Structures are given as structure tokens and as C-alpha cells.
Amino acid sequence: MTLEAASAPARQFTIGNVVGTSFAVLRRNMVPFGIFALVFGLINSVVEWASGIVGSQIAAAVKADEPFSWETWATTILLAIAVFIAGMVISSLATAAVSYGVFQDVRGHRAGTVDCLARGLASILPVVAASLVFSVLVSLASLLLLIPGVLIWLAYWLYVPAIVVEKRGIMESFRRSAFLTRGRRWMVVGLWLVVGIAALLVSSGLTSVLRPAMGGWSFGALYVSNSAIMAFYAVVNVVGYSYLRIDKDGGDIAAVFD
User: Fold this and answer.
1) Which tens digit of pLDDT belongs to each residue from 189-215?
2) Where are the domains of the chain?
3) Nearest 5 degrees, angle CA 35-CA 38-CA 43?
4) CA angle 166, 95, 141 (to 5 degrees)
5) C-alpha distances in angstroms, 17 versus 105, 126, 162, 244, 246?
6) CA pseudo-torsion sign 59, 61, 64, 69
7) How far apart (Å, rounded) are the C-alpha atoms in residues 199 and 185?
8) Terminal alpha carbon distance of the chain
9) Which pTM was predicted?
10) Residue predicted with more confidence, 103 or 80
């Protein structure tokens, strides 16, 4: 049953509805979302490996007390920036692609892997730019105290579906997210606490099952479990957005893709 066909109580934004619908959506789209998660997870692992190398080079230079060299440090900084941007692009593309697939699913349609990837690529630039703005806002607010950073995150966490689904601009997507989450932010806290605990349990279970099957290859087991969690987080994000949109916009999701 899709969100649009559900009964009135089931259309409300509640922790149970969001989590239950998220598992249902993930089950129906296990193949395309699984492919996205594994492929993007592998690329992200390579990026993280490259990031570790850059960090090791910086640490080694500092520890060895090497003479300052603009060329060395400039190269290292540029590599670090490139790794950061690559990670941001990969994460944004994965989230945008899954967002499209999830929203199509809750509307009763089915989006193939190619369609999801095409929509993700079409939204990649604004999503990456918005992700950078979001990271800066949360980081700056967190430097003051933890609570302001959390409040910023709670208000703006729906910026990606606002861009991908509604084709809004960067700042407009933040305003849209703030509107959708207003009056529901304590429930959002509860939702992500439940999701975080569930993700931890699922990750631990998958790792314990996969590690013996992979001959003790812990990295492979961790990679698969992390990829599954990444897909689930993306699904929860868009399902939560869909319920909040129904709550705030009057109970019907417009055919925004038509």
C-alpha cells in the first residue's frame, strides 16, 4: 500500500509509520537500492582509503619535523580538498538517486536503476552545493555548543528531497525543510534515535553473519553492512519527507514528476 492510498491515520508522520514504510520500501526495491549502496559504498571506501593516505602523509611530515615546504603542503592540501569533494559528490549522488526511487515508490510507481541514476545526476550540482552549505552551518553552530548544531540539523535535514523531488533551489530547499519540520522536531529526534539504534543492531547482526562467511575478512563484512545502512538512512530520509509533506500540504502528494 502506498502513502497516497493509505487510510488517514496511516498517513500521519509518526515514528512507527516512517520506520514501517521505510522497511517496506527497502524490501520492494532491494535490487536497485542494493546496487546503488554497494557500488557507491565501494567508491566511497576508495575515497576514504585515499583520505587516510593523505592524513598519514601530513602526520608523517609533522612527526619527522621536516623543513616547511610550500610545494609539499600545497600538494597535500589540494589532495585533501579533492578527496573531500569526491566523497561529497559520491554521497550526494547516491542520496539523490535513492531519493528519486523512494519517492516514486511511495507514490505507487516503480523507478528503475537507470531512471534513479539519471535523476541523481540531474540534481548533483545543487545537492553537492547544498550539502556543503549544510555541513558548514552545522559545523559552525556546533562550535558554539552541541545543541545549536543539532537544532540546525533538525530544521534542515530534508534539503535533499526538497531539491530532488520539488526541484527547489539551494536556499529555498532549506526554507522548505524548515517549514516541513516545524512543530515535528521532537518527533524527528525520536525517529532518528530509533533509526540509529535499529541501524546499529542491523549492522552488528550483518557483520557477525557475514564475517564467518567471508573467511574472517572483516573489511568486506563491514563494507556490506555499512552499504546497507547507508541505503536505509536514505530511504528513511525521503519517507519522512513524504509523510511531513502530506501533513503540511493537505494530504495529497502532487504528481511532481509528471
Assistant:
1) 999 999 888 878 877 776 676 666 656
2) 16-249
3) 120
4) 85
5) 15, 30, 20, 11, 13
6) negative
7) 20
8) 21
9) 0.75
10) 103
